[in-house]
Write a structure and sequence with these properties.
The chain contains five helices and nine strands. The protein is α/β, with parallel strands linked by helices and 208 residues long. It has a single domain, classed as Peptidase C15, pyroglutamyl peptidase I-like (Aminopeptidase, 3-Layer(aba) Sandwich), CATH 3.40.630. The strands form two sheets. It has a seven-stranded mixed beta sheet with strand order 2-3-1-4-9-5-8, with helices on both faces. Strand 2 and strand 3 form a beta hairpin. Helix 1 packs across helix 5, helix 2 packs parallel to helix 4 and helix 3 packs across helix 5. The chain is globular, with a radius of gyration of 16 Å. The termini are close together.
Length: 208
């Protein structure tokens, strides 16, 4: 039997994170979608959800606490991309914080590194094309993107991918469009994305 990161007698965990509202966006669909998936099963794993503060300083520590408590097999972090019209599975995070607006702690870094002396970029080691296809089969428009921006989403993705490589779990990032009436469809798509990531060789739970 394959080893999993799930605790004895419990299904493996997929952790899905979203962000709280920020700036002019009174509702953040990433939080709504993440919370709607809490407790849902996918390929033998159970989804758990966490909502992160839109804060350069506090977002990743919040996510890291959830990771260390739950010991997930897979983490999918979600964020809002206000100018996009479809889901995008992100390929790379860059070591730059360059904020157009302040975060929820009124912090606005410009031309700063996410991690001092860290690599310029970190690639996601998940099957991006398969994940995008799965989302489309679930009824959502979805592409692969080569940018997570330079706001809090990118900072969290950068640190998450580094943590995943050190911790032996898989991780990816998905940007959501501002589509409040499409929450159920986006939730189905994110579940499908998680399933495609779990199906990657060496990443699928033995129970699924």
């Amino acid at each position: 039997m394959k080893k999993t990161r799930g605790r004895a007698g419990r299904p493996p965990i997929v952790l899905v994170s979203g962000f709280d509202a920020f700036g002019a966006h009174k509702v953040n669909p990433s939080a709504l979608v993440a919370l709607s998936l809490h407790g849902v099963r996918v390929r033998g794993a159970e989804i758990r959800s966490v909502v992160l503060p839109t804060s350069f300083r506090r977002a990743f520590p919040t996510l890291r606490r959830a990771i260390r408590t739950l010991r997930p097999r897979l983490v999918i972090s979600l964020g809002l991309a206000p100018n996009r019209r479809r889901l995008t599975v992100v390929r790379i995070a860059v070591n730059v914080m360059d904020a157009r607006i302040a975060d929820n702690d009124d912090y606005r870094p410009v031309d700063r590194a996410v991690v001092a002396r860290g690599p310029d970029g970190i690639l996601a080691r998940v099957p991006l094309r398969a994940m995008a296809r799965a989302a489309r089969r679930a009824g959502a428009k979805c592409d692969v993107s080569n940018s997570a921006g330079t706001y809090v989403c990118n900072a969290v993705m950068y640190r998450l991918l580094a943590e995943a490589r050190a911790g032996g779990f898989a991780a990816g990032f998905v940007h959501l469009p501002p589509a409040p009436k499409a929450g159920a469809r986006m939730a189905r798509a994110i579940r499908a994305i998680a399933g495609a990531a779990l199906a990657q060789r060496g990443n699928r739970p033995s129970s699924g």
